Amino acid sequence: MSSSTADPERAIRRFGPTPNPGVASAYRVHAPLAPTDLWLAGNEGRAPEDASNAALRFDSAALDRYPSTDALVTQIAQRYAVEEASVLVTAGADDGLLRLALAYLAEGREIVLPTPTFVMIERYARLAGGTVVTVDWPAGTPYPTQAVLAAVTERTSLVAMVSPNNPTGGIATPEDLAAVSEGAPHALVIVDCAYAEFASRDLSLDALSLPNTVVLRTFSKAYGCAGLRVGYVLGEPDVIEALRAAGNPYPCASPSLAAAAVRFDADVAPFVRQVRQERAELRDLLEELGFESFASDGNFVYAEGARARIVVELLTGLGIAVRSFPAENAAASAADALRITCPGDPAQFERLRSALLTIERPEAILFDMDGVLVDVSGSYRRAIIETARRYGVTVSGDDIETLKSEGNANDDWRVTQRLLEAAGVAANLEEVTARFEALYQGTEETPGLKATETLLLGRDTLRKIAASWKLGIVTGRPLADAMYFLELHGIADLFDVVITRDDAPLKPDPAPTRLALERLGVRRAWLLGDTPDDLRSARGANVLPVGVLAPPLGEDDPEPARRVLRHSGAGTVLDRTTDLLEILP
């Protein structure tokens, strides 16, 4: 049997059957390109560290046997005052949803699904061969009971009620639940209560009092154990038995079950109170920043606004990941939206609040000079190449960009020396600097390369920006070189501060960026830079890093440079400095 390594996808299609019609592209969580250390995109809860450590202690002797859910089932049954036959422990609530789809949907059967809602419900329904009948449930509106009932037919097997709803945070009432249960007696009503601990009303007990409902719960949210992948289903014994048959017999690992048993008895009330407080404050802040923010009973806030998409991008520049919902993916809204998980931690929430204010209410805009305000492709970059040539070494633009992408390369004199060293040429830095400066500065008879420098952001545009924000420069240039260019092009008066190598250590050290903030008397600022050093300096000073693609020496492909800037911390990368106007608040 032959195979093709050139096109694995084609080989799979050629030698294997096509997937079932319900198999869609796999659900994937795409990590931001910029490094993020505060993950607020998945609505996971946060267990106290001491509680997490205690929960992870288990009897290692249990590892040689298939796991038993009996102990946890007993705990859950006692909590809800139901018989143990009414409890099924699953691999997260997702596993319960998949089992429901496999057990109760097939070709010719339907699920009524208010949307937007948890995306896996529709995926599982289609995988099982069922038909998905959607009903609009816009953010900020009540559960659409009448529309749901109108969509019920004799083919309806399942009706979804996610309360609190993800991603909007909306809730259904006990009256909604009773009406749907009564109006669709031949169907099973799924009551997804993943976020119930944070809600004003937990529908679990209401659902358990009705004959045709099934309740899903999870340890991933209030209990802070998303990594365990443990959830459970509550329902009539015959339903539970059908769900048991629709999935794996041992859904959870022994360590996960042991940890879940410990956490199940934990007091999550303090965490829930903290989240509710953050939820209210975050909603107010988003409204203040111009978003339409909706009441939420989950551990998150959902908001719509024209700047949702760019705010999500820029937050990654400050190390924070939140969830974006582009308008084209929304079921019932034409607006871009974002969803932010409340961290449940005062310090992390303050960091989030400060980041949102930095993005939407900056007090200053800072600029690197070379490659951002100044086209140096014919000056500094050319001086590096020509200086190296004086030593018999050929250096390309790509060589320069590769070295600068590695960081600690904000000094072009030292960059030149490092390139010579890489070619096996030992050169004294003082001598390299002198040759570089002779080329750059020129003489009375011969103009230097600095004469080729041009302005990348015109005075009128800078003046427009300066009307709303203080402006500053943070550059590795000597003061004399910086001021020569600014005065030559008539823009020196627009900048409130100019920080050079004469004032502070070079970037990536955050000191020059911090000094700019101090001299401007501000706390919140953006910094535009074209190198990893610029972006790392900004991050170190809690300033928003915005990448800019420097004008290339030739017909260079910009994508490698864009990736380098994103991986170095830029939330977004502009094709040119003038694009700044498109993302400013």
TrEMBL record:
Query: Needs which cofactor?
Result: pyridoxal 5'-phosphate
- The enzyme's main class, written as a single word, is transferase
Pfam families per record = Aminotran_1_2, Hydrolase
Please tell me whether the keyword Metal-binding is annotated for this protein.
Answer: no
Q: What is its EC number?
A: 2.6.1.9
Q: Which NCBIfam families match?
A: HAD-SF-IA-hyp1, HAD-SF-IA-v1
Q: Which InterPro entries match?
A: Aminotrans_II_pyridoxalP_BS, Aminotransferase_I/II_large, HAD-like_sf, HAD-SF_hydro_IA, HAD-SF_TIGR01548, HAD_sf, HistidinolP_aminotransfase, PGP-like_dom2
GO biological process terms, alphabetically, are: L-histidine biosynthetic process
Report domain Aminotransferase class I/classII large positions: 47-356
Q: Which GO terms describe its molecular function?
A: histidinol-phosphate transaminase activity; pyridoxal phosphate binding
* UniProt keyword terms in alphabetical order: Amino-acid biosynthesis, Aminotransferase, Histidine biosynthesis, Pyridoxal phosphate, Transferase
Pathway of this protein?
Amino-acid biosynthesis; L-histidine biosynthesis; L-histidine from 5-phospho-alpha-D-ribose 1-diphosphate: step 7/9
Tell me what this protein is called: histidinol-phosphate transaminase
Source organism's superkingdom?
A: Bacteria
Question: What reactions does this protein catalyze?
Answer: L-histidinol phosphate + 2-oxoglutarate = 3-(imidazol-4-yl)-2-oxopropyl phosphate + L-glutamate
Membrane-crossing segments per the record: none
Q: Which family does it belong to?
A: Belongs to the class-II pyridoxal-phosphate-dependent aminotransferase family. Histidinol-phosphate aminotransferase subfamily.
Coiled coil regions, renumbered to chain: none
